[in-house]
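Dear Dr. H.,

I hope your travels went smoothly. While you were away I took the liberty of generating a structure for the chain from your last submission, since the lab meeting agenda had it listed for discussion. I wanted you to have the full record in hand beforehand rather than looking at slides cold. The sequence, exactly as received, is reproduced here:
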Amino acid sequence: MIEAAVRVIAREGADGATTRKIADEAKAPLASLHYCFQNKENLLLAVFAQLSDELPVGVDLPEDRKASLGQVAEQLLTRAMRWCVENPVRTRALLEILLWAERYDPELSAGFYKAFYNRAEDCFRQADMTLPDEELHSTVRIVVSLVDGLSLQMLTGGDKGRTLRDTATACAMLRAFLGEAARSAA
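The corresponding predicted structure, in token form, is as follows:
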């Protein structure tokens, strides 16, 4: 049912994804959907949990366990954007649920983003050089914002190659900024 919900949400939006449409897409009785999830909101939360778990947020440290802030930012952004390019339907569904939550329960939406921020921040804390907390928080928000913006551009423009090229450009900008920030923090 979650896979059917992903397809319907991506096609119809979170508001247009009725439990009946999702059950029909899953070729399952509507009663089964309600038995498993009770209501549409619970199903949307389950879909969001599934998709956010799939979105890669992590880094591979070199053997010497020393990665620069720029390398961490590059890995986070590149992995997330590769997932988005490879999974446009899932990306659209994830964004639809985020927008749905923002409209109907802003605290829930803020909680969704806080979870993304925390996961990314944990990765940055593995870097060889650290940033002061306020700069770290700002950098994490920028990386998440880049994922959001590049994802929307990919979905509206449909050019996956350009999305990956723009991702590489954003990574170069982040590396340059974080290299400068690391020097000034030292």
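Two observations you may find useful: Residues 129 and 186 are 8 Å apart (CA to CA). The mean pLDDT is 89.

With kind regards,
E. W.
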